[in-house]
Amino acid sequence: MQAALRTIKLLSSSPKTTGKSISHTTTHLSSTKATTSPWFVDPEPQSSQKQAPPHLTPKVQEFPPNLPDTIRQLYTKLTQSPLLEPSTLDVRESVAPPPGLPLPRRAPQGRRRRGGTYAGEGIDKDAVGGIWNWVVIAQVKEGTENRGSIAAVVRAVRKTLLTMDTPIRLPPSSKRRAHNGWAIVDAGNFAVHILSRDSRQKYFEHLNH
To answer: What is the bridge-based pairing of β-strands 90-93 and 190-195?
Structure first.
């Protein structure tokens, strides 16, 4: 009799136990489903911000305290140009290139007095920096120098300088195309060089050292 009673109690309690285990299993599965993505879904990256390539990252340049505001404004404008490599923009004080060998002096010859090598005194030998006090170098994106990018940057530089609060007097614009991937804008006490990558390596290699 007692054994029968025990069997009845076990049978009566087993559905409750089974129901509890089923509900616990369902809750665990639902919580796992909410936190775990399916196997065919790629995990999200840790950082959603994409970093720009090094050649498109603007270079943070520390300007000397005596740099004119005109050049600062021009530099800021050039960093926004889609035609230039932002990391190659450079502003520095002008450094005179090393002097070459002196020409041998030769007096003019013939009736028309041609062939002379002496044309008078030029820039003072003790002058430092050359013709300009400052130099701005802007390199166009590689492969665009033959598609009008240099001329477009020249127009943008001239427009920026001519529309400032104190406009910069510039010589008349030349219709000639850039020679060997290099154009220059003479702005008085500073010059803006717009050039290709090859021209920069050829003519301004001494500035990279």
So the answer is: unpaired
Lookup result for tokens 């021209």: 199
Query: Could you tell me if residue 6 is left (phi over 0), alpha (psi between -120 and 50 degrees) or otherwise beta?
Result: alpha
What distance in Å separates the CA atoms of residue 91 and residue 110, rounded to the nearest whole number? Answer: 48
Round to whole Å and give the CA distance between 82 and 143: 14
Secondary structure of residue 3 in the 3-state scheme: helix
> What tens digit of pLDDT does each residue of 53-110 get?
554 555 567 888 889 999 999 999 999 999 998 888 999 888 766 667 777 777 778 8
Rg (CA), the chain: 37
CA 157 – CA 186 distance, rounded (Å): 11
Q: Give the Cα separation of 92 and 150 in Å (integer).
A: 21
